[in-house]
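Fold these two proteins, one after the other.
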Amino acid sequence: WILIDRCGKHFGTILNYLRDGNVGLPTNSQELEEILAEAKFYCIAGLVNLCEKTLENRNTVLSPVCQVEFPEARIYEETLNSFLYENRPGPDQELMRATSVGGVYGPGVGVTSCTSDEEEDRRNHHRLIKHDKEYSE
């Protein structure tokens, strides 16, 4: 029995290389570097060379996939503009009627929702007038 105190994540790749002399390497550079570290630990020179050559080829061929050219303020501005200038249909008239003074139940049937601050101000003004008339009688 031999105890190997290593993570087993890439041990299958190491075994396959030892069996076949060749192995498919991952496309992820981080995983490739992890396999390289394991190959160095186990002193498998062929796999070390294969990993190093693959990393060199990827570093020379690959260019950055994405470059950020706009500061954050520009991104926020573009997002706000898309909300401001998108083409949307007007408000749903049925919804506006249902949420206006009285709603679908008619005036004074316990519905107190308002569609705007102006409408709420008008409602409060009418209540004050009604209250003043009742008080003066």
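Now the second one:
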Amino acid sequence: GFPRTLGQAEALDRICELDLVISLNIPFETLKDRLSARWVHPASGRVYNMDFNPPQVQGVDDLTGEPLVQREDDKPEAVAARLRKYKDAAKPVIELYKSRGILHSFSGTETNKIWPYVYTLLSSKIPPILSDEEN
């Protein structure tokens, strides 16, 4: 997400005024497991997740048959360190937007369970776009 640090939030303030900020609260273990299950095809950037979007053949890209790699920062130890660092850096950002009354937080572990709530919030803030046929 963005902004991730207070400095980024302050820089963003200089170019636009936010009226809605969404924070997704996902348990640490869920994030660690998902990121640690991510593998990529370096040449194309295609991303696979061994839990919910695995390649057809373990360890190889579906289109080229070339080997997949796990990025160093997606290995479990690195993910844990990244998440701790993110939590520390993001806390003041969350507090800033909470104090402005524009923070909306959603908690859960599954996208398909969180998304309907996020969609409802966004739908209430953004008018629908009508096609030419509807106008």
